């Protein structure tokens, strides 16, 4: 009988609990060489190629594109070539390729929490998570009639490829990474600035279906279609249509969270359960600013000044052991919003960077996040966080503190407010600031002094 080897999904970076199959580079029955690309996997941090651990024949693939495989679970079976050189069993490959430590058999299924109790929390995109060891069989999400995993959608956006015009080659009509690359190379599916036929007032059919308004038109309300041919806001009798409650029927299909968004959900729940958050808000007066200034760089400089004035918020807190670590340096986690979810890369040594250095570092981090090339080491270890949500909308917020950090600063939308001054009133440019801190690790007085130091630095002319 042939010697069949099972390859288990290795830890693809700092204790990540699972990864999603993007595409297989082989099929069952193929002959593959040692270290040749076996498959592409999307983790919470990047899309990585997993090399083959053997030279031989692929006997079985444990999953299809879109499936979630947890770290330590079976990924593929091989029949090694007895005449080919194989990697020594003890030779390091940079990843742990073996199965997880076997657990003692139990008379009944153990709770989900117990199944992962043998793994420590590890760094992830926005905090720390726990690993498991099961396989979730999920299909690529269908959005706008196109089936593709998030990594493929991200690549299509980067290469300016219209997924709706790409011919899928994957199982069940799934668009693969190679499909997108081929479309970009031959120019067969360019992303158009307007839907087909509508760039100059036209009314194309495919474009109209993809970009149509989600609500009924006035004509549809006045002339409702027969039942089964469309939805309207009124019935044939002219009365408002009463819909069924969500518990009876809901539109759309459930979508399994994957990759970054899956990790974000876990980490946010963990933070909510373990932090005692308190938020202070105030407005930074920017009236004294001279000329055009880099707002983000000024925010970071002000956070650094506040950290030096009140080190208690530039810290890590261990809630289990009730210990606190104050940091002499300032590494700021910069929240970066993407379609796939939230990334928080670390701006290292912010306390020794000037304005130009800060801007260059932020540009580099954002670029690496967008193309998913950012190293896993850059997504953890920050000492305090910044969420500049005001670049979109909103004045004040209660951003989430992710352990082990103690505080996060939120910057709201710039505004012009009427301010009372000696002898009358003036209109000043102001920036709303929200400071959320873990009240277990810092006092209200420390937080208030931190906020004051931050506001004072922002108020300086330059």
UniProtKB/TrEMBL annotation:
Residues annotated as domain Peripheral subunit-binding (PSBD): 147-184
Ranges for domain Lipoyl-binding: 4-79
Biased composition (Basic and acidic residues): 82-94, 220-229
Enzyme nomenclature, EC number: 2.3.1.-
Alphabetic keyword roster: Acyltransferase, Lipoyl, Transferase
Enzyme superclass (EC): transferase
Gene Ontology MF: a single term: acyltransferase activity
UniProt cofactor(s): (R)-lipoate
UniProt entry tagged with the keyword Kinase: no
UniProt keyword annotation of Transferase present: yes
Domain of life: Bacteria
InterPro entries in UniProt: 2-oxoA_DH_lipoyl-BS, 2-oxoacid_DH_actylTfrase, 2-oxoacid_DH_E2_comp, Biotin_lipoyl, CAT-like_dom_sf, E3-bd_dom_sf, PSBD, Single_hybrid_motif
Annotated stretches, region: Disordered: 81-122, 186-229
Description of how the protein assembles with itself and partners: Forms a 24-polypeptide structural core with octahedral symmetry.
Family under the similarity heading: Belongs to the 2-oxoacid dehydrogenase family.
Name of the protein: Dihydrolipoamide acetyltransferase component of pyruvate dehydrogenase complex
């Amino acid at each position: 009988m042939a010697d069949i080897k099972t390859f288990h999904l290795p830890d693809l970076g700092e204790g990540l609990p699972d990864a999603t199959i993007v595409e297989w580079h082989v099929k069952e029955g193929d002959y593959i060489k040692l270290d040749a690309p076996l498959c592409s996997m999307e983790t919470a941090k990047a899309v990585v190629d997993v090399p083959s651990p053997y030279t031989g024949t692929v006997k079985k693939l444990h999953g299809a594109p879109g499936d979630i495989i947890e770290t330590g679970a079976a990924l593929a079976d091989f029949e090694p070539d007895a005449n080919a050189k194989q990697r020594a069993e003890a030779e390091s490959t940079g990843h742990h390729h073996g199965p997880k430590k076997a657990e003692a058999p139990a008379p009944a299924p153990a709770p989900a929490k117990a199944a992962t109790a043998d793994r420590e929390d590890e760094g992830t995109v926005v905090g720390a998570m726990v690993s498991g060891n099961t396989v979730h069989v999920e299909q690529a999400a269908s959005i706008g009639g196109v089936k593709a995993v998030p990594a493929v959608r991200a690549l299509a956006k980067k290469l300016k490829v219209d997924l709706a015009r790409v011919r899928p080659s994957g199982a069940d009509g799934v668009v693969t990474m190679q499909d997108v690359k081929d479309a970009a190379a031959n120019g067969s599916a360019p992303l158009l600035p307007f839907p087909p036929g509508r760039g100059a007032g036209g009314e194309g059919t495919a474009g109209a279906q993809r970009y149509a308004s989600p609500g009924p038109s006035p004509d549809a309300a006045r002339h409702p279609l027969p039942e089964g041919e469309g939805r309207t806001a009124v019935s044939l009798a002219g009365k408002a249509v009463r819909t069924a409650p969500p518990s009876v029927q809901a539109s759309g299909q459930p979508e399994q969270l994957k990759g970054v968004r899956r990790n974000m959900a876990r980490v946010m729940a963990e933070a909510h359960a373990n932090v005692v958050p308190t938020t202070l808000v105030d407005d930074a007066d920017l009236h004294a600013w001279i000329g055009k200034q880099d707002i983000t760089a000024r925010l970071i400089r002000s956070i650094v000044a506040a950290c030096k004035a009140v080190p208690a918020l530039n810290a890590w807190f261990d809630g289990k052991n009730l210990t606190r670590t104050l940091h002499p340096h300032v590494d700021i986690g910069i929240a970066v919003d993407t379609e796939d979810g939230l990334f928080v890369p670390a701006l290292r040594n912010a306390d020794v960077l000037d304005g130009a250095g800060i801007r260059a570092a932020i540009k580099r981090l954002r670029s690496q996040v967008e193309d998913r090339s950012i190293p896993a080491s850059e997504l953890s270890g920050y000492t305090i966080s910044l969420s500049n949500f005001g670049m979109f909308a909103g004045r004040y917020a209660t951003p989430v503190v992710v352990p082990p950090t103690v505080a996060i600063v939120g910057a709201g939308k710039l505004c012009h407010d009427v301010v009372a001054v000696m002898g009358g009133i003036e209109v000043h440019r102001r920036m709303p600031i929200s400071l959320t801190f873990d009240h277990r690790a810092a006092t209200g007085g420390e937080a208030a002094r931190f906020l004051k130091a931050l506001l004072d630095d922002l108020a300086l002319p330059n």
